[in-house]
Design brief:
alpha/beta, about 40% helix
């Protein structure tokens, strides 16, 4: 996603501590004995220790987690290691990048147990079961409520609004060439304006002062005024982030506020779904299958919102109160067929870069 971290900086330290714990759980296993199963992922994978321990106890496998940087880097590494993988299961390829590993035959087919509990809209592999949907989240423009209240200005609601003079010099976005949220936002504009119109739209955004930075973390933590409960060091009250970012801004706050300090512009969103797959050539394919079953189990699905700040894809998984109270549903987020993304992604990114960055 290329940059795949979804967490405001205040949350990162605690989450990284948990992540290191999860990795350590598998550190002592001997992979040759068939008792260790290795999950290869991006840096943002996380699971609570009790949930992971319960899986290990019930399955008899020890889980080892190998993190490979941001999502784009991790996916590229999996492609380079096709047939001779670093582990047994890969987690973290999303629908904007899915075509790359599928074209390179990175995954072995496996129909995970519980797949029938996942709506068809998330199953993008045409019934081939090379990848299993695990979580979903919407890339959306977030706004700083207090900034707009002080200015007595309504926050933008649509993509069209962002190009209006009232919002000049207010928006920061991650780079579409180096960041998955940035790419998702670009795809939202392609979906909205079509092949003939999206370049004109971005020309308007550039004229209106859109700022482009390398990745999500820089955009959200360094440039967005609404991060860290309004204490962000940035001066831009609009940022391309996630629909789950407002609930995260409330995490740990006492007393809990009536509403999140940030909101989302619902008509700017692009739906992102993350997948996991059994790596072709895995040394422990049976362990890998068990791990895939675990990733879409109700237990893991209900754990992941507060671990990775995304939503479960399993329809019977309940969301935590933090999400139901402070999150906003996006029923009409833009989507795009992975094959269309595959056929156009590189040329879209190249055109976008020449238009907006250079």
């Amino acid at each position: 996603m290329s940059v795949h971290v979804r967490r405001p900086a205040a949350v990162v330290t605690a989450v990284l501590a948990l992540a290191l714990t999860a990795t350590a759980c598998g550190g002592s296993g001997d992979e040759a004995d068939g008792k260790t199963v290795t999950l290869v992922s991006h840096d943002s994978f996380n699971v609570s220790k009790p949930v992971l321990k319960e899986f290990e106890r019930e399955s008899g496998y020890t889980v080892k987690v190998l993190r490979g940087g941001d999502a784009g880097a991790a996916v590229n590494q999996a492609v380079l290691n096709q047939g001779n993988p670093q582990g047994d299961v890969f987690f973290g390829v999303d629908n904007t990048l899915l075509s790359r590993p599928l074209e390179k035959d990175v995954f072995a087919p496996y129909k995970a147990k519980g797949l029938e509990k996942i709506p068809a809209e998330y199953r993008l592999d045409g019934g081939k079961h090379r990848v299993t949907p695990v979580d979903t989240g919407d890339i959306c423009v977030n706004y700083d409520r207090s900034w707009f209240e002080k200015k007595k200005l309504d926050p933008p609601k649509t993509l069209d609004d962002l190009a209006k003079p009232a919002y000049r010099d207010l928006l920061v976005t991650p780079n579409a060439a180096t960041s998955s949220p940035g790419l998702g936002f670009l795809l939202a504009t392609v979906d909205e304006y079509g092949e003939r119109g999206w370049k004109d739209y971005w020309a308007k955004l550039r004229k209106n002062g859109v700022e482009v930075v390398d990745g999500w973390e820089q955009a959200y933590n360094d440039r967005f005024s609404g991060s860290q409960g309004g204490k962000g060091k940035g001066d831009r009250p609009l940022v391309v982030s996630y629909a789950s970012s407002p609930p995260v801004e409330v995490l740990g706050k006492k007393p809990a506020p009536e509403q999140a300090p940030t909101g989302i512009a619902k008509d700017t969103c692009f739906q992102q779904t993350e997948f996991a797959g059994l790596l072709k050539g895995a040394s422990n394919p049976e362990g890998g299958k068990a791990l895939l079953d675990f990733l879409i189990s109700k237990r893991f699905q209900e754990d992941l919102p507060l671990q990775m700040f995304v939503e479960p894809v399993r329809e019977d998984a309940e969301l935590p109160e933090l999400f139901t109270k402070y999150g906003e549903r996006v029923p009409d987020a833009a989507t795009m067929d992975p094959e269309k993304i595959a056929g156009n992604r590189e040329q879209w990114i190249k055109a976008w870069t020449s238009l907006v960055v250079k």
